[in-house]
Amino acid sequence: MTETDSIAYDVVVLGAGPVGENVADRTRAAGLSTAVVESELVGGECSYWACMPSKALLRPVIARADARRVPGLRQSVHGPLDAPAVLAHRDYYTSHWKDDGQARWLDGIGADLHRGHGRLTGPRTVTVTGPDGTRRVLTARHAVAVCTGSRAALPGLPGIDEVRPWTSREATSAPAVPGRLVVVGGGVVATEMATVWQALGSKVTMLVRGKGLLARMEPFAGELVAEALSEAGADVRTGTSVESVTRENGTVVVVTDAGDRIEADEILFATGRAPRTDDIGLETVGLEPGSWLDVDDSLRVTGHDWLYAVGDVNQRALLTHQGKYQARIAGAAIAARATGETLLAEAWGAHAATADHAAVPQVVFTDPEAAAVGLSLAEAEQAGHRVRAVDVDLSSVAGAGLYADGYKGRARMVVDLEDEILRGVTLVGPGVGELIHSATVAVAGQVPISRLWHAVPSYPTISEVWLRLLEAYRDN
Questions:
Q1: What is the pLDDT of residue 1?
Q2: Residue 286 CB burial class (10 angstroms; 0-12, 13-18, ≥19)
Q3: What cofactor(s) does the depicted protein rely on (predicted)?
Q4: Residues of the chain with pLDDT under 70
């Protein structure tokens, strides 16, 4: 191996996914010299193995389901989806797993891209080992930002590696439709991928250890999604664990804790995430390799005034949009500290990721969609808030009936009875993903109920659910 002279920057960013890109964008906009280190593809997990491919796969599935609920249109929607066309559409949205465009974007903002594996080798120092084995030492005058994301965590079942299981990466990039697919897990990845592959022709069996799907949302969200998956032909088994998994002559054989034997062509484990921090040199700065990194609201790592952890690695909210929000906060905080500007770190200030605690939105792109922001009823009660849940059947909203025959869905707002503001909102039903930002504004803005009465929803849209929710709060 050869080693070049070290190169000094104001900021060094480990990881060129959406989070790292946004940190670089903000620090460059502030005039700081910035290096970005990436060992895989510029654009990261979201662009190639998560958000973009999964939503490209889901879009035709949801569009067909919606069309089948519209009189005069359902009769024209016959036969199976064109799986090769759907997969080709997915490939287009991943740029065929090439990152030329995103690399050009980094160059366009003036950030230097260093390809290779980056490791901390001391305070403010990152050593990059390139694909050809050469090493380059990067030093940071002001900050190093760890934006390396997370990876799928596989359970410790004996022989699982020999089974060659799918994780989220294989599930979103598979070149062909498996005839039979076992999905282990009941969270977002599990439900979305079960939705996709069932619609594309797989016989899907879901094995869920807990009582239901989407355990981090209101219980009715998982219930409605499970009902729809079952109606579509998936076999959803809750309260079920995997005891063993083997691959015999190419066939996956799963044995459950109930003694059931299930055969499949592929098995997807969607059972959690782990931080990509196991081989980035954390031990050289007194931190535990492979650990989640604890940060303050400016995303600075506890006990290190030069080290930031942004996105999945801090385990605050494992969502691309929330990581990008954190990146904007972190980039601004790094720049303020570097240039001596006043740090606005109070709640809801320019350098505080307050929304991580109070207003995290998420959409699950199943059929029906499930969307939520803020706290569930149980979470609000556990946090000590005096709250009341207000529920509305979405089928009572005129816009929902126009959207789809037999529209089935539900909405809940969790009202803080002391301040009369919203602590959380959950919506389940076709098309509700486009409504969640209005809920996010209400929760993040702490808009009083009295003021929400004056935000008049357009008629006849599904957003009229806001009026129904307010009426239910007033009248009960």
A1: 43
A2: exposed
A3: FAD
A4: 1-4
